[in-house]
UniProtKB/TrEMBL annotation:
Domain (Fe/B12 periplasmic-binding) ranges: 78-362
Pfam families listed in its UniProt record: Peripla_BP_2 (PF01497)
Organism domain of life: Archaea
Region of interest called Disordered, as start-end residue ranges on this chain: 31-54
Biased composition (Polar residues): 33-48
Taxonomic source organism: Methanosarcina barkeri MS
Record-given protein name: Iron(III) dicitrate-binding protein
InterPro entries referenced in this protein's UniProt entry, alphabetically: ABC_Transporter_SBP, ABC_transptr_periplasmic_BD
Length: 402
């Protein structure tokens, strides 16, 4: 009996020891937890940074085109594009299959379609609506289709701070990461660098970094080829030219021009309107008469104005009938390139046609229409020159009868 009691006491004693150890361990855990809540963060105490935590959770942080730090999923396969030109860049990167929604302009049916990326991808019209065009998004519609990331082009002419604030507001309303960037242009080096930076940022988001570099290299090589063909032409032998009827937020007449029209820059033509600055300009007809360029090129998007737009003006306005280009039948049509921002593939294609007209001996190996389809195929995946041109009475890359 005494033996059994001793055995019982030992069992009880061991049980008490185990219970004490459990209680002590719990207190230690609570103390550590309290320290993390009231003092340093768990990541600080463990030596794990926020970036490491993002990586562990399948996310990463990038800096967008307006200096915002945005954390996005590591593997993005569902996006929406907001703002003018944003979806065009996604097509350039061959990531259009990632799209899950589009803005109102992408869904419109139009007799005139000047966007090669849309012609090459008619399925884009069938996606759900995310809001109105030019970045006027509907957060509720975006939330309903659950993209992983919202890609957004900034508003031209708006400050970095304002564009960044717009992106933050949309991100806060939707709870979805917003990666924003400027659209850029090919008019000067600063704006060209914006294009390249934006393509690289978008490439990071959708896993198309290599394609982004391909696009950048193609643009550079094409511009260099154009420049090499004409760089040694003496200033005194460079042709004078004017581009009229340039589309800008819609179609316009003869006075609508681009003082820094890239094709003229690349083939070393003398743009008679170059003194008007770098941005789009409307000139006085009297100025065009005074300049009297040897060649006039017409953006055939002008046909949307009615009465043949700029072409009708050259035919019917007696103040323009004395222009040398009109009398000498040196008026030519080029493909519209400003349609929901700039279609860079059309700008590059136009440059080869302009070069062929002004300096045929320097471009004798070039068939402008074939070259255009080569360029369109690279950028948007299909040779759409004829499809575009047919909408504008096939006046592109031809002498326009007046």
């Amino acid at each position: 009996m005494k033996f059994n009691n001793n055995k019982l006491y030992k069992i009880i004693f061991i049980g008490i020891l185990i219970a004490a150890l459990v209680v002590t361990s719990g207190c230690a855990d609570k103390s550590t937890s309290d320290t993390n809540q009231n003092g340093s963060s768990p990541s600080e105490t463990s030596g794990v940074s926020d970036a490491d935590k993002a990586a562990e959770s399948g996310e990463f942080t990038l800096t967008d085109g307006y200096g915002r730090e945005v954390t996005i999923p590591e593997n993005v396969e569902q996006v929406v594009c907001s703002g003018a030109g944003c979806l065009r860049y996604l097509v350039y990167l061959q990531a259009q299959d990632d799209v899950v929604g589009v803005d109102s302009l992408e869904k419109e049916e139009s007799a005139f379609e000047g966007r090669p990326y849309a012609l090459a991808n008619p399925q884009l019209k069938d996606y759900p609506l995310i809001g109105e065009f030019r970045g006027n998004d509907d957060p509720e519609k975006i939330i309903a289709i659950s993209p992983q990331v919202i890609l957004k082009t900034g508003t031209s002419g708006q400050s970095t701070a304002s564009n960044g604030a717009d992106a933050d507001a949309l991100q806060n309303k939707t709870g979805i990461p917003v990666v924003m960037f400027p659209y850029g242009s090919l008019k000067n080096e600063e704006q060209k660098s914006e294009i390249y930076s934006s393509l690289r940022i978008m490439g990071q988001v959708v896993g198309k970094q290599e394609r982004a570099e391909e696009v950048i290299n193609y643009i550079n090589a094409t511009m260099q080829d154009l420049e090499n063909r004409t760089a040694d032409i003496p200033e005194s032998e460079r042709k004078t030219a004017y581009i009229g009827g340039v589309s800008m937020a819609g179609a316009h007449g003869i006075i609508s021009t681009e003082p820094a029209y890239p094709p003229f820059l690349w083939v070393n033509a003398n743009n008679v309107a170059s003194g008007m600055g770098a941005d789009h300009a409307d000139i006085a007809k009297e100025a065009l008469v005074d300049w009297d360029p040897e060649y006039i090129f017409i953006d055939i998007g002008t046909l949307q104005v009615g009465n043949e737009g700029a072409i009708g003006e050259l035919k019917n306005d007696t103040s323009l009938s004395g222009l040398s280009a009109v009398k000498n039948k040196k008026v030519y049509g080029v493909i519209p390139y400003n349609y929901y921002s700039t279609n860079y593939e059309s700008v590059l294609a136009n440059a080869y046609f302009v070069g062929k007209v002004l300096y045929p001996d320097r471009f004798e190996d070039i068939d402008p229409e074939a070259k255009a389809d080569e360029i369109y195929t690279f950028f948007v995946g299909k040779p759409v020159f004829s499809e575009i041109n047919e909408q504008y009475d096939n006046l592109g890359f031809k002498s326009i009868p007046l």
